[in-house]
């Protein structure tokens, strides 16, 4: 029995309504609000002449946007049907891509601007991504591979973008470790 088949029909009724709200809030609304907050924070940092911090925030936004491209470009490229009738194509899950992209951007921001929060933000982002993936399966609108592929696509594209944008931490040299 497939994972999608295990949840067949559970999207109907109260459980489906609650799951839809959780999925939309965590998978679409929260990432958008977070990234608008980052943009406003970058503008405020720029206004206060904290150019370095503003630049980091803007580069993190670019990582988010590159991660979101995984869904925008992937759906028309793969043209995969969903487990049940639904308006758009299935692969990759846009909700999962959205929350995973926001999570990656948030972790990168913390690496540079709030290192003490990195672990907490990474765990929270991972848990939110897993929860959104589960809701998409429970609603019967995605296959398991749509959610896993979305996360892997965001990590691949996002880490390449972060590298190009010089957001990945520099490796620690052997001399620094010996000292």
From TrEMBL:
Domain Phosphatidic acid phosphatase type 2/haloperoxidase: 83-161
Gene3D superfamilies the UniProt entry points to: Phosphatidic acid phosphatase type 2/haloperoxidase
Transmembrane segments: 26-47, 56-74, 94-114, 121-144, 150-168
InterPro entries in the cross-refs: PAP2/HPO (IPR000326), PAP2/HPO_sf (IPR036938)
Keywords: Membrane, Transmembrane, Transmembrane helix
Superkingdom to which the source organism belongs: Bacteria
Protein name: Phosphatase PAP2 family protein
Organism: Amycolatopsis acididurans
